[in-house]
Structure formats: structure tokens, C-alpha cells
Amino acid sequence: MSDVESSGSSSGSTTQGGTSPTRRSLLKGVGGAAGLAVASGGLLSACSSSSKKKDNSSKGGSSGSVAGSTVTFGSNYSDPAAKTAFAALTAGATASTKVKININTVDHNTFQQNITSYLQGTPDDLFTWFAGYRMQYFAAQGLAEPIDDVWEKIGSSFGPAAKQLSTGLDGHQYLVPIYNYPWVVFYNKSVFQSKGYTVPTTWDDYIALCKKMKGDGLIPLAFADKDGWPALGTFDILNLRINGYDYHVKLMKHEIPWTDQGVNTVFQHWAELMPYLQSGANGRIWQDAAKTLEQKKAGMMFQGTNQVAAQYVTDKANLDDLDFFVFPAINPKWGQDYMDAPTDGFMLSKKAKNVDAAKAVLEYIGTGAAEAAYLKTDQWDVGLAQGLQVPTYNAIQKKSVTEIGKCKAVAQFMDRDADPAMATAMISIIQKFIDDPSASNIASLQKSAESQAKAIYS
What pLDDT does 60 receive? Predict the structure, then answer.
């Protein structure tokens, strides 16, 4: 759910030199905010979640001679800024392991939509993917290879919560994490200063600010959903603010029906916000929405740093002028305790042809040195390794560490927390809501969501 290009596939290759945790515990394990290592940059290093060490059942290993061999790496890092950072990471892996890496880049949406057929067919040795349930789903399908032996070597680099987010429901590890990033409300400091705007902390203040911006001739909130997934984040944050984290988890697991009044309240608040969102969202890609903010035609934009800050870098916009605030409180019971802060990483295909060399690359990626090197190029994400020292962190990254650290729990985004089929269903439902946010349509869409959820989760 990052770095989306909607222009279609741009595939091609370039060579760059025990107890199994439940989904609920995996998601909530990231939330031990009090212990997050803000000063060092290791966001998950001191969380209190834990998992027992599992017997290693992974095939192969990286102890053999791998120098000079080649691995292929399927990548959805298609946005120019992220693509550059990933190229630097793989170049470092090649320098360290002497393994040649052929990167096959596909635009994010195409990669995500075709991931199942890709993994069932002739996948690359390694592929970029997401932590949490999205990883667990493909591990359970037998489409990913466990990498417990890799984690035996890199485990000291990560805290227990990061390991849990990398662990399948069978208790084996399947992913090496690299970073995470918060979903927050972005704005330009110069615009707020010139207009005398103040950062809102409550829903009423947020709506009042939107009204003021509209009166001043600004688009209050830049907004785009042609790609489908961006608006899922708006649903998530409203749900977290109104109903809380546990409700979010239960809804994603269909332990709460989509016809519940809590869901209706989420859509009602969103409908109240709709007059201040950039119109025509279903026909606009998020990059163009970000440009509206860059050009100071919009006052704010709610999305991930992995997108907005990265787009500022790509467009050579004034990153120093960019700032953000966490989404305002709605229900005082929850305040601003939760947010989406997705974790990305890398996995080994079950059909990998060069397992030993691929594991050697993963072992390199799972080091603090590799993360620090990656983050010299990446100016929007924040690293996960314990004790990570990143002198190159800018103001956005430093603030990201601080604000994630304040959270009592962190969600992974709807299209990662829910069954993939349900997330796809909700993309269509939310786009229909954007076109018609009336109360009657909300009720109809809730019924549709519940009907699809019953079929998907049965």
C-alpha cells in the first residue's frame, strides 16, 4: 500500500550490484508504546510481546558458498523515490554477500492484485511484501518458505513485536522487516503560519479548520482513491478514533458484523467530512493529490509518510516545509491512542530456485547496518532494528518515531489486517460511498459488506 503507480505494469529487470501467536496478538504486539525506542530509532525494540523459539524446519540454509550466484527479487517499489532506496539496499546486499541480484519491478497495484497467481506460478526467489496477516495468509497457503534459520542469525536485531509481525500462524518466521511509517495528517507549515491556522486535536476543531480553509479558497483535504486502497486508511482512522483498536481487530476478523452501528457511525462521520475532501477522488491517483498539497492548493492530506513525504522528495518539493499532526480525537475514551503504521519487509518464495543465496541476502537485510544504509536514501520511513542509529533522519522521520511511540496499539491497515478478499470488497464499497455518502446508501453498503463478509469468512 505504498508507492503506487497506476500507469500499469513496468516490469523488467535490472541487476543491482511453543505457542503460535494469534492475529490479534500479532497486531497488538506492536502497541507497547511506553517502551518504544524513540531515541535510537528502533520503533519496536522494547515492546513487551513475546513468542517462543520454534524448531527450524526451513529447507536449505545460507552457510554454503553463494558468492557469484544470482537471485531474483520481485519488487513493488515502483515509485521513483522508493525504487532508488531499494536499489541502494540491494547494492549493499551484493557488496556484502557477493550475490548478484536481478530486480523485477512491477507497479504496486499490479503486484498486489496478482500476488497469488505470481506466487503460484514462477515467482522470483525473493519478493517485497507486508507484515502481519498479509504475510500469514500466503504462508498458510504454502506459497512462502519459512526462514527460521535466517531469524536465528538476525533475531538479535529486532524486538519481540517485530518478530511476531514476521511470524506465521504456524509459529515459523516468514518475513524480514525493514521499516514502518505512520498515517497522519500532512500540511505545509508556511500555509498554516500565513493563514493563522492551528493544529486541531478534536473532531470539532478539525471540521472548523476545514470550513475555514474552504472559506479561504483552499481545498481543505487533498484526497484520491483511484487506486482503491488509500481511502481504506480514512475508514481505519475513523474506526480507531470512534470505536477503538479492539473493535478494529474484531471487525477485520468478522467477529463484529459490518451492519453494526459502530460501522454506521464511522460512515456518518466520514459523510460529515466529505464536503471538505477533494472532489473526484475515484478518478485521481494519490500522487496527484499529493501534488495539490505541494502546490499549496490544498491545506491538508491524510495519508502515510511512505507516500506524501516520498512524493515531496520525488518532486523535489520543499520537504522542510512539510509537517504533520496525528488525526484528531473523536471519542474521548480512545483519544489519539491508535493509528495505522504498516510494516513492510521481504519474503522467500516457496518456489525459490536459489534458496541459499536468497537467505544470505535476507541475513544481510536483517542487520542494523543494512537498515541504516537503506535509510540514508529513504527520507520518509523509519527503521525497526534495535539500537538503530540513523543520523540522516529528517524532521518528518524523527517526529514519526515519536508519534508512533505514543500509541497504545498500532494497526497494520485494512488491506493487511483483513482477509485479502474482504479488503478487495471494501475497496469497491468505499468507492461507492465516496460517490454517494447518503444515509440510505450507507445502510445499503453495510448490508453488502456483511453479505460478502459472511461468504468470505465462512
Answer: 39
**16, 83, 149 from 62: Cα distances, Å:** 20, 26, 9
For residue 436, is it within any domain? yes
Q: What is the Cα–Cα distance from 279 to 262, expressed in whole angstroms?
A: 26
**For residue 22, what is the DSSP state?**
P
Answer yes or no: do 49 and 188 share one domain. Answer: no
Domains in the chain, number? 2
Cell numbers linked to 177: 522487516
Full residue range of the structural domain in which residue 87 is found: 13-181+342-408
Is 25 in the same domain as 121? Answer: yes
Judge whether 81 lies within some domain.
yes
Q: What pLDDT score was predicted for residue 108? A: 81
pLDDT confidence of residue 46: 27
Q: Are residues 213 and 346 in the same domain?
A: no
Residues 172 and 243 in one domain: no
Judging by beta carbons within 10 Å of its beta carbon (0-12, 13-18, 19+), is residue 224 exposed, middle or buried? buried
Beta strands in 285-423 (DSSP E): 298-304, 322-325, 338-340, 343-348, 382-383, 409-411
The Cα-based distances of 419 to 123, 146, 248, 453 in angstroms read 22, 21, 13, 9
In this prediction, residue 1 carries a pLDDT of: 41
∠ CA 103-106-107, rounded to 5°? 140
Partners of 338 in the beta sheet? 409
On whether both 153 and 219 belong to a single domain, the answer is: no
Grid cell listed for 104: 523485477
Three-class DSSP category at 7: coil
Q: Are residues 172 and 193 in the same domain?
A: no
Q: Which CB contacts under 8 angstroms, 24+ apart, belong to 113-118?
A: 116/141, 116/143, 118/74
Question: Does the predicted TM-score (pTM) go above 0.85?
Answer: no
Are 256 and 288 in a shared domain? yes
Q: Mean pLDDT by 10-residue block, N- to C-terminus, for the chain (458 residues)?
A: 32 35 35 30 31 37 70 92 90 96 91 89 96 89 96 91 88 95 97 98 98 98 96 98 96 97 98 98 97 98 94 92 98 96 95 97 94 86 82 88 89 88 95 98 98 96
Calpha distance 399→401 (Å, rounded): 5
pLDDT at 316: 92
196: CATH = 3.40.190.10
Which residue in the block uniquely carries the three cell numbers 460517490?
435
Same domain, 33 and 92: yes
Written as nine digits, the cell of 72 is: 531474483
Does 370 reside within a domain?
A: yes
Give the other-Cβ count within 10 Å of 148's Cβ: 18
Is position 4 within any domain?
Answer: no
- First-to-last C-alpha distance (Å) of the chain: 26
